[in-house]
Amino acid sequence: MKSAYASLKDLIPLMQNKQSKIKIKLQAIQNYEESCSCNQMSCLICSRKRSSSMISLKPLKHSVIMEQGKIEKQGIGQIQGLISRKLSRQASNQLLQQTYYGGKQNYEPKDSSTNSSTWLLSKSNSRKISLDYYSQKEAIQPKPTQQQVTTISRLVFRFIYVIGKGGFGKVWRVEMKQTKKEFALKEMIKAKIISKRSVNSVMNEKFLLEHLRHPFIVNMHFAFQDRENLYLVLDLLRGGDLRFHIGKLKRFTEDQAKFFACCILLALQYLHSNGIIHRDLKPENLVFDKDGFLHLTDLGVARLNKESVANDTSGTPGYMAPEVMCKMEHSYPVDYYALGVILYEILIGKRPYNGKNRQEIREQILAKQASIKEGTLNVSSKAIDFINRLLIRKPQQRLGFEGIEEIIHHQWLKGVQWAKLLNKDMKSLYIPGSIDGNSDFQNQISADSEIEEECQSLLRRKSVQSLFDGYKFQ
């Protein structure tokens, strides 16, 4: 086999000889400006030199290998397009790497290894965060039609009624006028975001959501903004959140609790495999669809599992792990602790630690180790062991410290048909039904708070609006 470095103009003589069958390797050279000087219109390298938008790239690792027969069949135009897409993709990769990952090719959890839980990913419709996935997707997509390039704005949607309330604004049930498809639209007031110093939080949430898609998380479809607000267009789930249903029933059966735990674990396994800690797992952030499957939402305080997160104390008191409460280094086990608190609450009827504020809850955690006593009515010994091990204060001793497969293989979850659950081929043990009226949502909506006039006036400044640059997804 022969291989050579060549510009596209050098391929033309080779195409004349149909007898020989050789492989030609085309590889980008480090310095594009010095690699060719023929200045012919058919030369890809020279045409890139003439482009005013040419980017200075690092040496590229990828190359294009083609057989001569394929060159004859595909033609020079298609080969140009192929090489152009590769160069474009690699430029996009390097920009993402430098911006979000400090130059790392992929962000993987520490001590990650192939284990028995990875089959959950392989059998799902989900995907891991790959820095070249979206640039590849953009490169191979056909040119959009006029309908597809319609700019997303408030005018595209018909606002039906309010279904919830977040920290920065309302959540609406909306219908896309063109497709008649319904979504949940999260409206966030920029003035409130600024006053609460949460710009990084909302930008981080949008960035994570645009790289994630899974059957058990609330997925994003669009993101856009106007002068006053940011908007996230999400899956519409009509079953209400877990907090709403805890308020109605107080307690659930052990089998129902196990089903909820499995839904949550599928969502956490997906996030953790992508190096993401949720850090705010609580009933308010777990939403039912009409068939009774729980979906995880709100990545506002989620973080990539980085070197040091000791000073990050974001979360909700009562569900916050002791290591977070005490401003210590923390990782994925904080989500497992919160899962233990939720299961304790829906089986026992109250949280293991209660207090009026963070300080009171912290003092209770330091004073004693919470646990469910053996012999508790309607709770099996396997369930008690499962929950008590999740609630252990020291993360090194907590169930799941060695990886989520340690939780999945616990005796309490033995026999769970994970693949069927992931595909939603089984029936939920709790059917919340569909909440279709605005009045049914009012119990979940708190009163509006005043927006400070000073923050409102800040929005007139270009420097303030620039804080939200890039807040779009379509």
Automatic annotation (TrEMBL):
<feature type="binding site">
    <location>
        <position position="186"/>
    </location>
    <ligand>
        <name>ATP</name>
    </ligand>
</feature>
<dbReference type="Pfam" id="PF00069">
    <property type="entry name" value="Pkinase"/>
</dbReference>
<dbReference type="InterPro" id="IPR017441">
    <property type="entry name" value="Protein_kinase_ATP_BS"/>
</dbReference>
<feature type="domain" description="AGC-kinase C-terminal">
    <location>
        <begin position="414"/>
        <end position="474"/>
    </location>
</feature>
<protein>
    <recommendedName>
        <fullName>non-specific serine/threonine protein kinase</fullName>
        <ecNumber>2.7.11.1</ecNumber>
    </recommendedName>
</protein>
<dbReference type="InterPro" id="IPR050236">
    <property type="entry name" value="Ser_Thr_kinase_AGC"/>
</dbReference>
<comment type="similarity">
    <text>Belongs to the protein kinase superfamily.</text>
</comment>
<keyword id="KW-0067">ATP-binding</keyword>
<dbReference type="GO" id="GO:0035556">
    <property type="term" value="P:intracellular signal transduction"/>
</dbReference>
<dbReference type="InterPro" id="IPR000961">
    <property type="entry name" value="AGC-kinase_C"/>
</dbReference>
<keyword id="KW-0808">Transferase</keyword>
<dbReference type="GO" id="GO:0004674">
    <property type="term" value="F:protein serine/threonine kinase activity"/>
</dbReference>
<feature type="domain" description="Protein kinase">
    <location>
        <begin position="157"/>
        <end position="413"/>
    </location>
</feature>
<keyword id="KW-0723">Serine/threonine-protein kinase</keyword>
<dbReference type="GO" id="GO:0005524">
    <property type="term" value="F:ATP binding"/>
</dbReference>
<dbReference type="InterPro" id="IPR008271">
    <property type="entry name" value="Ser/Thr_kinase_AS"/>
</dbReference>
<dbReference type="InterPro" id="IPR000719">
    <property type="entry name" value="Prot_kinase_dom"/>
</dbReference>
<keyword id="KW-0418">Kinase</keyword>
<keyword id="KW-0547">Nucleotide-binding</keyword>
